[in-house]
Amino acid sequence: MFLEESRSTEKTTTGTRKKYFPLRSSLPPIASSPRAISLAIQRGMESLIGLVNRIQRACTVLGDFSGEGAAALPALWEALPSVAVVGGQSSGKSSVLESFVGRDFLPRGSGIVTRRPLVLQLHQVEEGQPEYAEFLHLPNRKFTDYSLVRKEIQDETERLTGKTKQISPVPIHLSIYSPHGERTFGVLTKLDLMDQGTNALDAKLYTILELCRSFDRIFKEHLDGGRPGGERIYGVFDNQLPAALRKLPIDRHLSIQNVKKVVSEADGYQPHLIAPEQGYRRLIEGAIGYFRGPAEASVDAVHHILKEIVRKSIGEAEDLRRFPSLKAELAAASFEALERFREDSKKTTLRLVDMESSYLTVEFFRKLPQEVDKGGNPASASTVDRYGEGHYRRIASNVSSYISMVMETLKISVPKAVVYCQVRESKRSLLNHFYTQIGRKEGKDLGKLLDEDPALMEQRQQMAKKLELYKAARQEIESVSWSR
């Protein structure tokens, strides 16, 4: 059996039951019975394992264990089959290897401890022979004390890397010889083996953060187009907002009766001399005030779409289904963040509307066509009836043109503000506040977030019992078939 421990960012943990037989040098002839075929396959695997073990040792001696550099040739080592134990720093790789052997022989501590790959080969010897370990770099020395094996691994590592935290790709070859060929090993994690330098709180926190990142990734895919949902936000800007602006009662606000009333009230006891500027301003400010409603409605519509995407994303995150408490906390934190984004967006969009009424574009009115008299000259105030219906109709027309210009401006600026304050922020910092709260929680509170659904736990237990029943039934069926 050949096992290799290496460093990686992935986590791979498996559990199985394996029985090792003495190595043989040749394949047996093919037999006719199923039992003989099974034995032939096992012996063939033993022969293959022995061959790979010898090739691995040769690669280590000759330095052909990894290709380094862009111009390096492919290494034979990389083509050899092996069972690799991979995982992040302090994730329990050494514990998995030790579970194969059934002995504690690997260095432990905080930080990076295993700084060279460890190639572990297991050999079964005859019953009654002693169990011992042997290093490839010390071929004539047999270790029966596994504490000395641990020390030799540390010493051999420091011979190549020194006492620094450097990492080397040069493997350490260790062979274990034992008459006990049957091994049972399971899944070991940081929580199962609490050694010095291992923190259960970090493991729980890491699990929670990984689940949160999975949800956040799905949420962003909905917004960016990888999943459905984000296109509805564009529908708010392209359909809902323009339709709401068209339904505003601007025509009623600029009726002749209302224009005359507003202009008269603005003039007071002193009628305007040339143009009713105060009347113009009041009419424009009143019309622009109607735009606040559609702007707020756009903010609320996008807010409801984002909340729906959050619900859908949580439902699509399969890993979260096991943890209802974490799922509820995650949904509450997301909705709270979206509510903050909505308030900021509403303030910004309403500020855009107020800006249009606080300072009017004077150039627009200067470019308006002036009324001319019969001689082709601009009409003076004395030649125009300031109190006639035509005068008020012209005021309403000018204000309507200005309001149309403002409306087109808001059709562009309001979506920009909504996307910036809500969509963009939800992609960037939807869970930032939640991460801060999680970091302040104690181990007990973090454990509650990882409590599984009782119904799911009961279902798992039932499935485990059913699996054992099927295994027992299979054994009974096989025993009957062999007896025949």
TrEMBL record:
From the Swiss-Prot or TrEMBL record, state where the protein is found.
Answer: Cytoplasm, Cytoskeleton, Phragmoplast
For whether the record's keyword set contains RNA-binding, the answer is no
Has keyword Cell cycle? Answer: yes
Q: Which residues form the Dynamin-type G domain?
A: 77-180
Its predominant location is cytoplasm
- Report the Pfam families cross-referenced here: Dynamin_M, Dynamin_N, GED
For this UniProt record, give its keywords in alphabetical order, as a comma-separated list: Cell cycle, Cell division, GTP-binding, Nucleotide-binding
Gene3D superfamilies reported for this sequence: Dynamin, middle domain, P-loop containing nucleotide triphosphate hydrolases
Residue stretches making up the GED domain: 392-484
InterPro entries given for it? Answer: Dynamin (IPR022812), Dynamin_GTPase (IPR001401), Dynamin_GTPase_CS (IPR019762), Dynamin_N (IPR045063), Dynamin_stalk (IPR000375), G_DYNAMIN_dom (IPR030381), GED (IPR003130), GED_dom (IPR020850)
> What is a GO molecular function of this protein?
GTPase activity
Superkingdom of this protein's organism = Eukaryota
A GO BP entry is:
cell division
Q: Name one GO cellular component term.
A: membrane
In which family does this protein belong, per the annotation? Belongs to the TRAFAC class dynamin-like GTPase superfamily. Dynamin/Fzo/YdjA family.
What's this protein's name? Dynamin-related protein 1E
Q: Per the UniProt entry, what species is this protein from, by scientific name?
A: Dendrobium catenatum
